[in-house]
Amino acid sequence: MRLSPILHAAAGLVLLAAPLAAQDPALVEALAPILMAEDRRLLDLSAMSRAIGHPDALVRRTAVVAVGRIGDKRGAPLIVEALGDRDQAVVADAFFALGLLADSNNAAAIIARIRQPDSLDAAAAAEASAALARSGGSAAIAMLGEIIGGRGSVTAARRDLLLPIALLESWKLGAQAPVAAMLPFLNDQNDDLRWRATYTVARLKAPTAGNQLLRAARDKMPLVREAAVKAFTRAYADSAGLPAATVLGELRRALQDASPGVKISALQALGSWRDSAEVANVLRLLTDADFNVRVQATTALGELRGEAAMAALDGLFEKQGAVLGHDAASPSRRWPAATRRASPSAPPSGRPRRMCASGSRHTRVGAPSAAPATPSSRRGCRTPTRACRPSALSAWRTARPRTDTTVIAAARERLRSPAPRSACHRGRRPRTECARRGSRPAARGVADGCHRCGARCAAGGARDYGGVGAARPRGAAAIG
């Protein structure tokens, strides 16, 4: 008989409440100083030594992880002592803590524990491999080579537990990673191992793996294709001796992949080629069903540059449709009309309105002039209908010359666009309320501000807009 979802939830709450009720004051008293020391990043060797020898496994686990997070290498002997704990969960946490210390001097202790004939569960073995990769050093590199290459004194059963994380984490070794031992796994029948090896080799951009990565770009598994395609930058093609036409052909093929992740990886790699001839292959992705693909396509256009990319981004600003996911039927969500009419030779006249600080975080208009920002498909796009419009503006700025006034005009109109919320200071006092109270704005020309924040909003200065006399919202990046 199957229980209803309500009964399942009630049973779960009972199980969660049982250990909480069982905690006595002595246990709480043992845990409190450990957590306090971890928060303060202060290592008390005597206190931690007592905690790691505590009869309760929860206290021992908490102490081991705390020593690792504190980061004081003097605590390494305490963690090494916990590698022999009778509880496998404590052993796994001890491996994790040694990885946090990232000290090659601890590799010998990790290797000795791996080679012991006693039991080691899957979680502990995974943390052991990760700790070796994070620790580095000649001993760790040699051990990972043995695990991946299938040689040495490690038993086959234990190697099977160590291998997946060893493949996935070996990129942390950089140029010393055992790439030669990983290459056979790029053709392995096990999908999981093949993906892990492809990810690491592609992230390392190993020149010897060029041809195998080209084959991996057509793998049946989307994760393998995504990892392989991301490596096909122009610099990697040169270092691996791959023909440019072959690599670009694979990238064009990946742009038509059914997986959004593969298309995003292809767009990221394609941007590094700075080839305006590829703009036509990117344009159709501006209307892709996946929002992250659309954002990455605008970024790629900015990186490809050239007249074709500039024209494409100009056209993007002229549209009222859902290119970046905004609702064309809603007047408040349309691109401003003056932005669509902006010309390189004549920016729109009139003083741009300034906005209060609460709206600036929703309408960030560009990147600092010293280092243009690349919009991310996973960051700063909480509301795709509005917050990611600056992604296109940033890419547009990248494609256009620094002195082009069209970008300045578009940015001005973004400031004129209504803020997502009409209240200043995170909704505490709307502008209309200021008017009802008869308060006078703190600075002249602050059309959308209030008496409390007007002066701060005006502090940006004209220099941030290339000297066109416009002030910016506080916290917004310069675009001039």
Describe what this molecule looks like in 3D.
The chain is mostly helical and 480 residues long. It has 26 helices and two strands. The protein has a two-stranded antiparallel ribbon. A hairpin with a 4-residue loop joins strand 1 (423-424) and strand 2.
List the helices and strands and how they pair.
Layout: H1 5-22, H2 25-40, H3 45-52, H4 57-70, H5 76-82, H6 88-101, H7 107-115, H8 122-135, H9 138-149, H10 156-169, H11 179-182, H12 191-204, H13 210-216, H14 222-230, H15 234-240, H16 244-254, H17 260-271, H18 279-283, H19 291-304, H20 306-318, H21 337-341, H22 357-360, H23 389-399, H24 405-416, E1 423-424, E2 429-430, H25 431-437, H26 454-457
Antiparallel strand pairs: 1-2
How would you summarize this macromolecular structure in one to three sentences?
By secondary structure, this protein is mainly α. It is built from 26 helices and 2 strands.
Element-by-element helix/strand order:
HHHHHHHHHHHHHHHHHHHHHHHHEEHH
The N- to C-terminal Cα distance equals 68 Å
Describe the oligomeric state of these chains in a short phrase.
single chain
- Helix % is 55-70%
Fraction of residues in β-strands = under 5%
Structural class: mainly alpha
Number of helices: 26
Sheet of most strands: 2 strands, antiparallel
How many DSSP E strands? 2
Rg: 29 Å
Mean pLDDT metric = 75
Low-confidence stretches: 1-18, 320-387, 419-480
Spatial arrangement of strands, main beta sheet: 1-2
Report the principal-axis shape. globular
